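User: Fold this one for me? It's Tripartite tricarboxylate transporter TctB family protein.
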Amino acid sequence: MKLKSQRDFWSGLMFVLIGLAFAWAATAYDFGSSASPGPGLLPFALGLLLALLGGLVLFKSLAIESERGEPVSQIAWRPVLLVPVAICAFGYGMSRLGLVCTMPVVTALGVLATGEQRWRWVLFAAVLATVLAWAVLIHGLHLALPVWPGVAS
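Assistant: Here's what I get for Tripartite tricarboxylate transporter TctB family protein.
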């Protein structure tokens, strides 16, 4: 069997594997009932949905000729490495540095992952992300997150 599109094949396979992993991990939680769903139902259903959509993309890569069937290019290591670092920095920094100090660092790491290094844009994005995070998380959802280092909201 010949691959019609390498990109679709590898992305479909990735979605199937990630979806099945999420569905499998969700089985550790209680599913509840239809009247009172438990915490495992949504991640299980979303994992299966992701695996199903990945299966459709995988099928397409094997059955339907694609215009962009060229081989997959090199892996972009910068975003592959910097995005998880930004996520970990958010988790580590929120409890220690607060929202106002953590969000600019996380935003700068995210922008650096794209390869864009226009510092005006990084500063603008950091301020905008911090204001939006404060508005949604602290003001809108009333979450008890620290805003400044050592100060709870």
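One thing worth pointing out: The mean pLDDT is 87.
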